[in-house]
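From the pipeline queue, job 12 of 40. The input is one protein chain; the requested action is below.

Action: predict structure.
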Amino acid sequence: MNRTDAAVDRTERTDKHNRLRSKGDFPWWLIVMVGIIALMAFAILTNEHYQEAWENIIPGLKITLYLTVGSFVVAMPLGLLIGMGRLSRNRLINTLSQVYIEFIRGMPMLVWIFVVAFVLTPDFADLIGVKTRDIDEIYRGAAALCLFYAAFIAEVVRAGVQSVDQGSIEAGYATGLSRWQVTRFITLPQALRHSLPALGNDFIALMKDTSLVSVLAVNELTQEARIYLGSSFRTRESYFILAVLYVALTLALSLLLQWWERRLRIPGRTSD
């Protein structure tokens, strides 16, 4: 076999491997998930009890989205600051950042919500000179969520910064950039890109954890389902609709994050 034939044979084997790999990468899980959601939607459309449950629970979606987006928007810069503090050479800043992270990570989410809502909020209200009852429960729940997830985002940021290639940092210094400029223009952009999958997982987890603020009587999805259940005693319909909504939200966010990751993927780098 001459070199030309060998090259053609290698090309054919590579094409065959890529075709087999493409078949293996077909998103069967997505087809199954969409099918499950479609069956759930069919039940809602064809059963009046499910329709009634849907109409009573769906208003809580707005509060769930507000809590998710608002808490994450605040948690991101806070987590970034804590994460950079965790990498600081200043012993005091480094220690305080680590204490905050370990304290939050050792606290169950539900317990933390109670601490923020009924312990820290009254102290904060006295500090700023307002009555505790004037601080709505939705703000207490949002504060608990953003403070809790800031600790996890901080660890994601720390890991992302440490994953940045040292050569690019040294190249920045070699061109005369200051430490702040290297951090701003080289380290953080790469760190955030590397951290995107983990940050996306935190965002989805935060969305699901908004259900816990129902213990504060915040009218998000879970609380609306509990209210409907209490008035109608339709357990199956209430929790069925609640499950449909959370599964659909999680799937939509997962697909959106996967699309965003592909858009931000570094050219020439594979996902393997």
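Job complete. The chain has a mean pLDDT of 85.
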